[in-house]
Amino acid sequence: MVAAKPTTDPATGHAWWDPRAWRSVLAAATPSGRARVPVSWALYDFANTIFSYAVVSYAFGLWLTDPARLGQAQGQLWQSIAILGSVGLNALVSPILGAVSDRGGRRLPYLLVFTVLCIVPSAFIGAGSAALGIVLFVLANFGYQAALIYYDATLKTVSRPEARGGLSGFGVSIGYLGTIFIALLLLLLPLPLEGAFPLQAILFAIFAVPIFLAVRERGTPGYRFRVADVTASWRQVARTIDDTRAVPGLGRFLLGRFFYSDAVNTVIVVMSVFAVRAIGLTEKEANLVLLLLTIVAVLASLGWGRLVDRIGPKRTLLVVLASWAVGLALGAASLSMPSFGTSVAVFLVAGAILGSGLGGVQVADRVLMIRLSPHAQLGEFFGLYGLVGKASQVVGQLLYGLVVATFLATLGNAAYQLAIATLFGTMLIGLWLVWPVSDHWAGADEPTAPEADPQPSGAITAS
């Protein structure tokens, strides 16, 4: 006789579907002991993913490539140039932004500034000409990318080390619920494409509020921001790069991240354009497909988070990157299928793999970065982490856009296959670089409760 599966959590005594069980688990995962802290932190993931999906992944590319504006070839090229401008500028300043926050020990004031910089311009992207829309997108995406530096670094404030992978996965999953939420609204509301821009801005603002009300940081006592701190932080970048040499494998990990982020960040931007212009779906169908794939990503992110806690962030990341290589190969193959139905089916399989892996990358590599970062230099090192990811996006997005714009007229859909082949190659290089990196590093001199140690030692020591 098979024993019945227990329906209660032995640690809390509550059924798994009881909100009290989740509240207990979340409270135990944070140094504050208050469940609302990680929930409010995760809601920011919900909020900024609304922008990421509605603007970056869905509306902006389709809006630019509309024949009434720039058309397919020129629209994709200028989309790539807009990404290059916003992300490239952010890549230049991200180490400085992180280092400045380290001086005061607080991330939330900077997170607020750049969140506002994202929300306000993004609301007006579709209100004018293509040229004005590109400029507003550059400003908004710069703000979004800069805010991520501070948001990722606050994971250490709101989580205990032993629960960090699970809480990271929880945040990513909540973020994907934001994608589902905005995708459903775009499907159900009778809005033109231009209506996506103000809608997402309002929602982003609403759901970003809780993190600023619930999360508390302990800054450096007596610190006040000075313009001279920015100048000092410029000089500090070279020292930051030197400091990475004291952490075994960190330089190789960051180089690997440059290559695999090339594929990840580019796919996020071009997915809707690829589905509509290359596969042949309508805008509504593409939105529905991306919605379904996001549901896969939500479930997968929770699984990736548990895997990080079980086998470690490095090994989890390797599994994720291998799955991405398979997904990219299938995505390119979908354009060579003998029928439209088969092409869509293969595209859906590829999308499910990539969607799952997207959550896995977000969950695993930020936990790995925390494990490889000295506690006193967390913002500084996350600035460098952001620099690597953004620099790769500049290169990858520009290369993808140039390939499509150059070969579309002569090769047709094969131009998209050639562009995806460049992403497949960089993904394999990233996998090869990360493979030998060890995540057994205690140099983060990581306290059990980060909030209780506002001025930790900056010593960099290997375990």
Describe the structure.
Helices cover 75% and strands 0% of the residues. With 463 residues, the protein is an all-alpha fold. It has a single domain, classed as MFS general substrate transporter like domains (Growth Hormone, Chain: A). Helix 4 packs antiparallel against helix 5 and helix 11 runs parallel beside helix 13 (340-371). The longest helix has 34 residues, at 378-411. The chain is globular, with a radius of gyration of 22 Å. Mean pLDDT is 80; it is low at 1-17 and 444-463.
What would a concise description of this structure say?
The chain is built from 15 helices and no strands. Residues 1-17 and 444-463 have low confidence and may be disordered.
Descriptive tags:
15 helices, 463 residues, globular, mainly alpha, Growth Hormone, Chain: A
